[in-house]
Specification:
There is one protein chain. By secondary structure, the protein is an alpha+beta fold. The protein has one domain: Cytochrome p450. The protein has 17 helices and ten strands. It has helices at 5-8, 11-20, 40-47, 56-66, 89-100, 105-110, 112-131, 139-144, 146-156, 163-174, 179-202, 208-213, 224-254, 257-265, 270-280, 313-316, 351-368; strands at 23-26, 34-37, 52-53, 137-138, 290-292, 296-298, 301-303, 308-311, 372-374, 396-399. The strands form three sheets. It has a five-stranded mixed β-sheet. Strands 4-10-9 form a three-stranded antiparallel β-sheet. β1 (23-26) and β2 form a beta hairpin. Keywords: Heme, Iron, Metal-binding, Monooxygenase, Oxidoreductase. Involved in the coupling of aromatic side chains of the heptapeptide of vancomycin. InterPro entries: Cyt_P450 (IPR001128), Cyt_P450_B (IPR002397), Cyt_P450_CS (IPR017972), Cyt_P450_sf (IPR036396).
């Protein structure tokens, strides 16, 4: 049983599993038993193995059976999961093609000026509060969360007054909260997105959601249900991972003054530093659920068909067999081979945008706050209780100058 203490520091457990049971059947939180894969080579291979399937309908059936629930149990309703991340083969190819036109590297680069302006706004607001006498500000709530949330909501055309709600919904959906709480959050998000998609179809705008909803050159287009699920994926994935990247990366720098000083002195190292933050504290610590479509042998362990498999990206990116001194921050390290954004056909569609947001966020922080420090003891910090994500609940900071 992997309990809540695992959330605060999973790495000793990962180290033990890699050494003794790199493919182990475990229970994580309230989920049914799953097979957890922790070694780099096995995880990387698993991410590209078509025998580890992702079909949402089949996955829901397996989850219900594992939990001893009837086929139509609501606890594992997968309605919002019928998107490209939970599809296989030709269906995945079709869905990804319809969405990828809006998430090219060039499209992401065009967003840089807006991201820079937002980051500067948020940094100025934090500086003003500190100058007015605030003992500290929360780098998560005041900076890491609103930056990517505002960006993804703007490019998808979500109105200002609903953006804060998405954070609460997505955190609940991705947490180990009781099933009824997760279901309530999914329903609330689904109902809102259902209406949003209908509005965008009827009255297209200049936003990316409208572009995604338009038919392609072959007159193919997302159905209403597919569009609602895709909007959910883009909204959740479009901010949660970057929030975690900014928070975890800032903490790593503040706990390593020598590395922070080197980065301040050599800002050209920033793109590589972002890659190191992604490796050291992978924002998606465990890839989304897969299941064995047939009997599969991984790392010498045979897993029967119809079993849930979790690929521990956070463990793989700290495997000493792949990265030297993996538990240390080294902003000049070669992170070649890092799988923080996944690997294979499900490689993160928003990787280019996430990298730009991370680079801009840290550049602005370093420029605006030359004397940023932690406002609490590191031992007081808490991490979100999630199987999938690795991110801080809060990061109180202050400045000594």
């Amino acid at each position: 049983m992997i309990d809540e203490s695992f959330t605060d520091d999973p790495y000793p457990t990962y180290e033990l599993l890699r050494a003794r049971r790199p493919v182990a059947k475990v229970r994580m939180g309230m989920s049914p038993p799953v097979w957890l894969v922790t070694g780099y080579e096995d995880v990387r291979a698993g991410l590209a193995d078509s025998r580890l399937a992702k079909d949402a309908t089949k996955l829901a059936r397996i989850l219900r059976r594992a939990a001893g629930l009837p086929e139509d149990a609501e606890e594992f309703d997968m309605g919002l999961d019928h998107h490209m991340l939970h599809s296989d083969g030709a269906e995945h190819t079709r869905l990804r093609k319809l969405v990828s036109k809006a998430f090219t590297g060039r499209a992401a680069a065009l967003l840089r000026p807006r991201i820079e302006a937002l980051a500067a706004e948020l940094a100025d607001a934090m500086a003003a509060r500190l100058a007015a006498g605030a003992r500290s500000v929360d780098l998560i709530e005041d900076y890491a969360f609103p930056l990517p949330t505002t960006v993804i909501c703007e490019i998808l055309g979500v109105p200002d007054d609903r953006r804060a709600e998405f954070g609460g919904w997505s955190r609940t959906m991705l947490s180990t909260a009781p099933p009824h709480e997760q279901l309530a959050a999914r329903e609330a998000m689904g109902e809102y997105l259902d209406r949003l998609v209908a509005r965008k179809v009827a009255h297209p705008g200049e936003d990316i959601l409208s572009e995604i909803l338009a038919p392609d050159e072959n007159a193919d287009r997302l159905t209403h249900a597919e569009a609602t699920a895709m909007a959910s994926l883009l909204l959740v994935a479009g901010h949660e991972t970057t929030v975690n990247l900014i928070g975890s990366g800032a903490l790593a720098l503040l706990r390593n003054p020598e590395q922070l000083g080197r980065l301040r002195a050599n800002p050209e190292l920033l793109p590589g530093a972002v890659e190191e933050f992604l490796r050291l504290e992978s924002p998606v610590t465990t890839a989304t659920m897969r299941f064995t479509d047939e009997e599969v042998t991984i790392g010498g362990t045979t897993i029967p068909a119809g079993e849930i498999v979790l690929l521990a990206i956070g463990s793989a990116n700290r495997d000493p067999g792949r990265f030297e001194r993996p538990d240390e921050l080294d902003i000049e390290r070669s992170t070649r081979g890092s799988i923080a954004f996944g690997h294979g056909v499900h490689y993160c569609l928003g990787a280019a945008l996430g990298r730009i947001e991370g680079e801009v966020a840290f550049r602005v922080l370093l420029d605006r706050f030359p004397h940023l420090t932690l406002a609490v003891d590191p031992g007081e910090l808490r991490w979100h209780n999630s199987i999938l994500l690795r991110g801080l609940v809060a990061l109180p900071v202050t400045t000594d100058g």
